[in-house]
Amino acid sequence: MRFVTDEKYVLGRMLEEAAKKHPEATYFWFEGEQYTYSKVLAQSRMVAQGFAEQGVKKGSHVAMLMENCPEFIYTWFGLALLGAVEAPFNPFHKGSLLEYLINYSDAEILVISSSFIDEIRSVEDRICNVKKIIIEGQFKGKPFKKIETITFASLLQGDGKPRTAEVKYNDIMALMFTSGTTGPSKGVLITHNQAFFVASQYVNVTGVKRSDTGYCYIPLFHEAPQFGLVLGSMLYGGNFLLTRSFSAADFWQDIRKYKCTASGMFEVVIKILLMAPEQPDDADNPMRIFSTAHITRESQEAFEKRFHVKLVNTYGLTEGDCTIAATHRDIRPGSFGKPRGYFDVQLFDSMDRKVPRGKVGEIALRPKQPHTIFEGYYKMPEKTLEAMRNLWWHTGDLAYQDEDGYFFFVGREKDMIRRGDENISALEVEKVAESHPDVKECAAVAAYSDVWGEEVKLAIVCHEGKQLDPAELVAYCDERMAYFMVPRYIEFVEAIPHTGGSGRPVKEQLKQVTDKTWDRVKAGVKIKREAEKKKKS
Fold first, then answer.
1. How far is C-alpha 172 from the geometric centre of its chain's CA atoms?
2. Which of 60, 212, 408, 435 has CA 20 to 30 A from 458's CA?
3. pTM for this entry
């Protein structure tokens, strides 16, 4: 389907049309129960009425800290019917970051799953704006000292009559948050139209149709499952399986039971599934295609070979998804495809000059249609202007383009390590280190150096029961990468901290050199180039 920005792309209106066209068709399954389009519309209307009675109106922000469940979808859709704005948080957040997000969102109402009561209780005294908390699920007594609570079930007591609100395609539908891997999370303002643009591109990329069944295991606070799977299914009257969370043990079992044929996937999930012991029936599954992001050629080829499932790589961020993409008809392993006619795309150097084919540059985009990327960062005009400088959206991601026009992901601009006059891709260092048989996961970061500016530091998680001599790992890297990329510092850790949604490593927490960090210079371990220089001298 070819997308054209249109006034019809309003979530409430699109839901009503889908329910009118496919009233008794299954929209999704959850924990064995079937939810039809007509049921989802009726429940969403009741939730909208309940919210209106709590004072929610067009433009209101309502925060959400919820597990995957039907109530999440009713909350999102109910708010959209009123022209209000959903502000979903990563359910893995807690403490000061959760406090920051709640206050930053300016939400007066917070909807939570009962499993997160303790997290909210721990920050209740520091929450500034929230006047009421709506709890989905079972709980006892009065969970909070000061903030009034009501049950989610109380929102479902109305007659469900349609709420009339003048909602437009270019109104803000969602306030979603960046991962915060390089600083405080930024609130991304997303319109109804942008959400349906992403939905349409998911349909195009995967080639899904009514005979397909989606699989939604990714947390719904993330734009990819919300817009791609949930709204994407709505566009063609499709259906999907919704699960509370990802489970490696249940993953293929769910897919086989519900005959799921299409879904999305982050590289961290690919790695987890590939690490599981091989089974004789690995390839015996109905799954046809996964839409993925920023995956390497090695991961793609290994996964496709083992599970006989096609991976189609796309490029996107919370601010704008599926801006460049492969499609089910046009896949080049390791590449996230080509522009598909909706954006002007350039690769820029640090002075916003176009780089030649084959050279690494920052991905910069300019939409050809209105309201297909974000409207800006909430309450952060300086950050918005910085991202949109010279009338291009600067993504902060680095890539190169081959002679055939395909794009290949290199890493985050802020994920580059500058050692002397050499730019080092952390991703390339990590790929080599993770190819060592004893390394389960690693993260390459920049550690401060008073001589070189920055030195490479590796945080390493070893496979269970394995121990690795840091000098051995240095020798392994020295054989497989340029001398200036070989890590000076190595630190063994129990786990790499990750964001909960995309699984991106939070590297700021790993940069410091501590007494637990091994230093090859202090240890007297020399790489080949250094040893050869010493011989010559």
1. 20
2. 408
3. 0.83
